[in-house]
Amino acid sequence: AQTVTQSQPEMSVQEAETVTLSCTYDTSESDYYLFWYKQPPSRQMILVIRQEAYKQQNATENRFSVNFQKAAKSFSLKISDSQLGDAAMYFCAYRSALGGANSKLTFGKGITLSVRP
Amino acid sequence: EAQVTQNPRYLITVTGKKLTVTCSQNMNHEYMSWYRQDPGLGLRQIYYSMNVEATDKGDVPEGYKVSRKEKRNFPLILESPSPNQTSLYFCASARTSTRPGELFFGEGSRLTVL
C-alpha cells in the first residue's frame, strides 16, 4: 500500500519570502500522480499543483513549484514570494495512474502554514 | 459551472438518528468517492464508486453506507451515527475513461454527532 508522509506539522514564513514544504511517499508503482492541495479556513480543497511521475521536469504554477525526486520518493512544494493568502493547511497526496483501479488519493497528514506580515 | 455539491454543509445530530449526506456532480464523472478529514490524520477514503451500481469500501467504511443509482449522485448514509463519526466529510469525483487526473472536491460537510 502507498503511504504519504508529511513530517512537519507546522511551518511559518515571512511575507514575500520563500518556503518549502516537505513530502515523502512510498510506493512500488512506477506510474503515478502526486499532488499538493491547499485547504484554507473555508475548508475547500484546492488543487495547487500536480506532477506526473513519468515526467522528469518539475511542475510549476506561477509562484508554486515542486522538487520531484523520483528515486528518493520525495515531492516538496516551494512557495515563492509568500502572500498572506497562502496561509492554509497543505496536503501532499498520491494517486495511482492505473486506469480502472480505485483512483484513491492517499493523503499525508497535512502541514499548517502561517504567513507573518 | 463544473462543481460537486454536498448537502448539508453543517449538521448536528444525536447518536442513532439516521442521516444522509447528499453529493451531486454535473461533470458526468464516472468515479466518485467519500473522504473524512480528522485532525492529525489527513483525509481518509470511506467508500468509492467506479460507476453506476459499482461501489466498494475504502479504508474506513465501518458505520457508513453508500449507493450509486444515478451517475451524478453518490449519497453517504449513516444508519446509526455515533460520536466517533464526528468529522469533516468530502465528496469528490473524477473521470476514469482516460488517464486519471485530479479529483474535484465538494465544499465539505461538517458533521457533529452528540
Detailed description of the structure:
- Chain A has 117 residues and is mostly beta strands.
- Chain A contains no helices and 12 strands.
- In chain A, strand 8 (64-69) and strand 9 (74-79) form a beta hairpin.
- Chain A is globular and about 45 Å long.
- Chain B has 114 residues and is mainly β.
- Chain B has strands spanning 4-7, 10-13, 19-25, 31-38, 42-51, 54-57, 65-66, 76-78, 87-94, 104-105, 109-113.
- In chain B, strands 2, 4, 5, 6, 9, 10 and 11 form a 7-stranded mixed sheet that branches. A 4-stranded antiparallel sheet of chain B has the order 1-3-8-7, with no helix packed on it.
- The mean pLDDT of chain B is 93.
- Classes of the chains: A mainly beta (117), B mainly beta (114).
- The A-B interface holds A 4, 9, 33, 35, 42-45, 47, 50, 91, 95-97, 99-100, 102-105, 107-110 and B 31, 33, 35, 40-45, 48, 50, 56, 58, 88, 90, 92, 94, 96, 98-103, 105, 107-108, 110.
Brief characterization of the structure:
By secondary structure, chain A is mainly β. Chain A has no helices and 12 strands. In chain A, 0% of the residues lie in helices and 52% in strands.
Rounded to the nearest angstrom, the distance between the terminal CA atoms of chain A is 41 Å
Mean pLDDT of chain A, as a whole number?
Answer: 92
Fraction of residues in H or I helices of chain B: under 10%
Poorly predicted ranges of chain A (pLDDT <50, ≥5 residues)? none
How would you sum up the major sheet of chain A?
6 strands, mixed
What are the defining features of this structure?
heterodimer; A: 117 residues; mainly beta; 6-stranded mixed β-sheet; 4-stranded antiparallel β-sheet; 12 strands; 0% helix; globular; B: 114 residues; 7-stranded mixed β-sheet; 11 strands
SSE layout and pairings?
The complex is a heterodimer of chains A (about 120) and B (about 110).
Chain A lengths: L2 E3 L4 E5 L4 E3 L2 E3 L5 E8 L6 E7 L7 E2 L2 E6 L4 E6 L8 E9 L8 E3 L3 E6 L1
Parallel strand pairs in A: 2-12
Antiparallel strand pairs in A: 1-4, 3-9, 5-6, 5-10, 7-8, 8-9, 10-11, 10-12
Chain B lengths: L3 E4 L2 E4 L5 E7 L5 E8 L3 E10 L2 E4 L7 E2 L9 E3 L8 E8 L9 E2 L3 E5 L1
Parallel strand pairs in B: 2-11
Antiparallel strand pairs in B: 1-3, 3-8, 4-5, 4-9, 5-6, 7-8, 9-10, 9-11
